Amino acid sequence: MPSGSDSPARSPRWIARAALYLFCVAALFALDQFVMAPLLLPYVYATIIRIGIYAILAASLNLVNGVTGQFSLGHAAFMAIGAYVAGAMSVAASGLVQNHPGWEGSAIQAGVFLAGCVAAVIVASLAGLTVGLPTLRLRGDYLAIATLGFGEITRVIFQGWDHPFGGATGLSGVPTVTSFFWTYLFAGTAILLLRNLQWSGPGRDFMAVREDEIAAAAVGVDVVRAKVVAFIVAAGFAGIAGVLLVHQNNGIDPQQAGFLNSIEIVVMVVLGGMGSLTGSILGAALLVILRAVVEGAPALSDYARYENVIYPVLLIGLMLVRREGLLGYKELSWKTVTPLFTRWRKLEKL
Amino acid sequence: MTLAQTQQLSADLAGAVDGGDVFFAMENCSVVFGGLTAVSKVSFKLGRRDLVGLIGPNGAGKTTIFNLITGVYVPTTGRILFNGNQIAGPVNQERGDAKRFFRKGSRMTSWGRRDIARAGICRTFQNIRLFHGLSVLQNVLVASHSRYRQSIGGAMLRSARYYEAESGAREQAHALLAALKLLDYEHFLAHNLPYGAQRRLEIARALATRPQLLLLDEPAAGMNPQESAELMEMIRWVRENYGLTILLIEHDMKVVMGMCERILVLDNGCVIADGAPAEVRSDPRVVTAYLGTEE
After folding, report:
1. ipTM
2. Which residues of A are less than 8 Å from B160 in CB distance?
3. What is the pTM of this model?
4. Is B170 within 8 Å of A9 when comparing Cβ atoms?
């Protein structure tokens, strides 16, 4: 049983919750300023940021592939759309700033970054709507193929779009804004919102569609609407992840909208357990760390070219040993973690 | 069918249905799949709080009638009225309708399955269709969602209105689970329930949509005599308590004869008898349909 799903609805306490949220934001900021940024190696710091970004991607794809039971293979395209929109805005803004001495400063960069986030969410969600409306009437394999096609179309469009987006060489010159603070602010918020959505009325509609479309329609669930809404929400969050990514890598190239990147996100979701929010975050963390180790460790650098062998092998192994993914439908929570310790403590007493 | 014919037919039918006070009526409905007529010119009416059995040999078209009523199939002829609305039947083409270019005149339409469910007709399935991966409580909550609406944003941000809707839905769900003796299983996955409880959960889920007309497709199938006796009691209780109209398909004659006030007998897609259990049982046509004729 997924924990938290059946807990009784609590009464809202707005002020307390807003205060807690703001406190967490401040704590995150302090953690970044005083611990993460000064103490960690840049490579480790960047890897931790990537974990956050991919956690957003995997958690949002999980809403479509895991919770709603559709199979989208074009998630990286939404990420790329968000990245291109916000990246182009930041590049344009930094051009403006250069012409007006005295305007420099991280506050302006951060402002443009936040505006980029809003724009990216809107554009990515609209892309989700336009793709979702016609394709989500398809079932199973056909949907996978249609979304795959959408990813490739997006890649080709950005390849050919020279003026703001840099064409085949991609967008470059995006300022570095993404930090531990921004990444985990967005990742934490996104995961919180996705969790709330999954364990609510609309989330139950999504799961009902996954379990049985005919029965869902028979009890009054709007099946197509549920699918499209899940798709749009997921696309919006992928857009945010794109904004973070483009402001970390200082740019993006069209290849990132393509098939391989989408597959990588799918692998994360499948690895963690389709339908499990914490599972997909765990999957994202594991794969990002794996990649960072293979690419970063000097002793392994000879083997870095085998990187693309790892995913298929991992997937095949997983399907043979544990088809439902690491966590299955289960969620990691204190309820599942604390018994491990109490049991251990009991054993110690014996 | 030409426009003139259809209009004539609609006019005839409108004459037959005195006004809009009919609770539920199926008029002259046929369904043709290719060359096979699954349901042929079936007409019947249901009043409020009726408990009607629908019986007939295998392949008589019972489930097809359920599929017609719930919008799975569009009737080839005829129409279905519910609470003064035509939920299936001929509709005159309106301007701007894309399909007007392909078929002139009127065409047969049916409301979507979801709209019919929301209008107040809900069904259970012959082969149980629960949301197997969800808990018993969640199964019922899904169905109550159309009554206790939650917006996407409200759900994500956990707004006050979300809590209101959620607690209302949970209250209703708990009441239904208690009524159908499922409260002990509340947190079980639907998949892990015993068979009888799965059947009851399907009824609970249907009731959560607050239907006015409940269609039960073989609710006692696969149950032992004691279980089906309990189920009969439960169905009767549900009807009294929620003021429902129930139409049920059942093969177990003990259940049907013991419970229903009226029985419709279907054979080869036609209604061959319609009346009280005692009348129907002695109707020679029914005996022939079930047992065949003496040569």
Report:
1. 0.83
2. 12, 14
3. 0.85
4. yes
